[in-house]
Predict the structure.
Amino acid sequence: TSYTVLKIYQRSDGQYYLCLSDDDDTGLTLLLDSEGGGKGFPLKYIKTFRLWESIPDGEDGFLVIGTSYFQNENLYTGFLSRVRPNQMLQWNKNFSFGSTDALVQHSSNASGVILTPNQEVVVCGYHESSTDTRAGIAIFNLGGDLQISTINKASGQSQAWDVAQRPTGEYLLLNLSSLLNVNATGTDILPPIPIQMGQFTHILYIADDSYVLYKASELALVNTSGKILWYNKLLEKQNIEIGEVIAARDGSIVLCGQKSDSAFVGKYSFATGDTLWTRTFMEPATSSARFHSVSETVDRGFILGGSIIEAGKTNLYVVKTDQEGIVR
């Protein structure tokens, strides 16, 4: 079985917590100690069609989103689950964008999630009908109660691949080549703001109402008017494919992924997008390695999770580095 690391991070007790997805989109949590030893726990009771993303819940657990398929009704819904620090499922909620009823006539897919400072869980995605596809946003509390669920009122094609919260409390939905502003209550999705160049699937708030956008080998900084402040053109030339991007505590940007056939991590300037340092990792007798997720640790180093192929077999790959990306 091949696993994708949806998220890895260091808990308050110092242990490393991983949320994984396997070939069958079955969830798995893994808890590792400081030496890399630990145990896994399957989340087979989350009935899914696809696991999309996982983030820390702020209390040493996980929030997981994805899509569920209901065969009898022949429809898809988004789902949001919360996994506790003991690796047990606390709750699982199915929902449809634009409705408080989870099982509506058409299908919804969840694709991005954030946890706000006010402890609200904001999920974005899209709702499909027989005539169009519309971006959607749903807001839950940490108890799993749905507070609001909205779809874009404008007809036509729109999707929300990812979501970020502005310092003023409003939200930005990323629709590949445009941004959709949403009011702080999540009840109104405004007309799209075109992004000057490129198409992106992920958005990350950094500072000064500026946002990092990324997809595959594209990395850019954009403001809320859609203006590109800088665009890093080196990633594609260097054969780098991005797994995840995070904001480090020193104000820089750290990304992980794959460079050629090696696992990759690099640090970049927030102000200019210039490279500060890069590191690659490849173990003996390995044909391919890749990082899917990165988080900063309490010692300002980094914990990275991904996969490695050895003798045709795919295994989990976890690396702990210092703040310069070096394994000590």
Q: What stands out?
A: DSSP finds one helix and 27 strands in the chain. Residues 234-237 form the longest helix (4 residues). The CA atoms of residues 220 and 231 lie 4 Å apart.
